[in-house]
Amino acid sequence: MSTAGIRDHLIQALQADLVGPYDVDQGDTAVEVLSMPPSRWYLTGFLATEQTRDNDDPEADDEGGAGDDLDDGATAAAVAESGTTQRKLFPASMGLSVLLPPGQGDVLTVRVRYAEYHLVQGAQDAAESDDSGENSEAGEGKRPRRHWKRVPYVVDAVVPLTLGELPRVRVPNTGGLELEGRLEATHGVTGLADGTRALSLFLINRRMEQEPKELGWVFQVSLELQPPPGQAFVARPDLRAADSRDLDDQVADLQFRRVRSYGVGHGVSVEEDPAGAWVRTCWLPQGRVPKVTTRSVPTVTTSMEALAALDDGPALRTALLPLVDAYQAWIQAQAALGVGGGQRAQTRDRLMAGAGDACARIQRGIERLAADAEARRAFCWMNGAMAQAARQRSADRYAGDKVPEWRLFQLAFVLLNVCGIADEDNPERDIVELIFFPTGGGKTEA
Question: Could you tell me what percent of the chain has a pLDDT over 70?
């Protein structure tokens, strides 16, 4: 199995264990029978009824014998030993907020997915109830073990988009699930057109309380919003980063300027269409991190053994100066990118100025190696030692014509620090460098 497959399997396992249903491959159609109440099987993803949201953990009912096959004496002893049970709050609502284009008189399509768990009698219990004689007498006084069967539902509702408090909408054929929310028009908000509408919508479980409580609860709940026909949700501007004085916020705002967010969850996370065609809640937040791959420049010598064999300054310049040329070309290309002006342009210029300083230090390091025979000899020894260690560590990897090589960022980091290492009086010696590239290896060698 690939690393991507392993990660996907772990995510599915978490989803199955925390939210359900256990057979995640079947999704909404999964048929599932649990041997205990679903609120004890799954830790999140459900909505309790509004009437019982502040009641004790339903596990307390089971300690009293509601769902376990215990005799009265054992039950009483277990409850007495546990002492006072801690009261817990269970969510009865969840929702999300989105932005809609300016307009009026339209409607929003809402899709609600959820599952109920119904009490059933297990096949083993049914067989035992038909027994007679000693088996029947042994079963007297015992509570029958209860099983819970999953029944999934998908229901659509339409919400009229009128400014102010939205009219309460009963989700059809759900026995008490309702939608409530508020719609406001925005004015003077940076990054938004005047009249852009801000919608907050909540799904609330207003079913009547039942016994056991889980009969009124809904599990694996999902709320999906689709904009009016011909429209898309409006991307949310990052107002915090726009005026932040923190460099980390400014850099993140610049680097992720093309990333769009269309919704925010309340008591839950969200997932969304990249173009804003839909937004829906999810109980297990997920994100994909693009893989970082290293580039190569054919004119740069990266072979450790070839670098170890350099015996004069001109050969060293020929081998390494193309790295400086490639870095300068990249800096010029990045500095010319249009980022929308304002603070983003200032952040871009600040970052490129820092990159220019690093490029100059790399070039000075190369010139120091070319002019200083002792420094060059140490550089060659270092490359030879690294090549020998690489071959001993991974002999199969370097079979045939394959040779140990530096990645460009590793080689650049070494050259960046040459002057500070070779000259005790060099001001660069006081600089503490931090190397971080999420490449999956290579930082230790550098």
Answer: 83
Domain boundaries, the chain: 3-54+89-282, 304-430
Q: Which of 48, 53, 89 is nearest to 221 (CA)?
A: 48
- Per the model's pLDDT, the better-predicted residue between 150 and 59 turns out to be 150
Residue 201 CB-density burial (10 A; 0-12 exposed, 13-18 middle, 19+ buried): buried
Q: Which of 233, 282, 281, 237 is nearest to 259 (CA)?
A: 237
Report the predicted TM-score, pTM, of the whole model to 2 decimal places. Answer: 0.79
Query: Is the pLDDT at 192 greater than 80, yes or no?
Result: yes
* Pair 265, 221: CB distance under 8 Å: no
Task: Identify the residue whose tokens are 């006084």.
Answer: 141
* DSSP class of 398: G
Half-sphere exposure of 179 (CA within 13 A, CB side): 28
Both tokens of residue 237?
Answer: 């501007």
Contact 92, 221 (CB under 8 A): no
In 3D space, the residue among 123, 120, 122 whose CA is nearest the CA of residue 151 turns out to be 120
What tens digit of pLDDT does each residue of 214-256 get?
A: 999 999 999 999 999 899 999 998 877 767 889 999 999 999 9
Distance CA 143, CA 61 (A): 13
Compute and round to an integer the Cα radius of gyration of the chain.
Answer: 32
Assign 108 to helix, strand or coil: strand
Pairing, β 219-226 against β 263-266: unpaired
d(CA 322, CA 310): 16
CA angle 339/343/344 to nearest 5° reads 25
Q: Facing residues of 77 across strands?
A: none
Residue 445 has pLDDT above 80, yes or no: no
> Tokens at residue 79, please?
């409850």
Backbone angles phi, psi at 355, to 5 degrees: -65, -35
Q: How far apart are CA 166 and CA 106, in angstroms?
A: 13
Closest CA to 144 of 119, 167, 109: 119
Pairwise CA distance, residues 236 & 96, whole Å: 13
DSSP string, 188-215: S-TTS-TTPEEEEEEEEE-PPP-SSGGG
- Residue 294's pLDDT is 84
CB atoms within 10 A of CB 23: 13
Residue whose C-alpha is closest to residue 323's, from 229, 414, 233, 189: 414
- Give tens-digit pLDDT for 8-47: 999 999 999 999 998 756 656 668 999 999 999 999 999 9
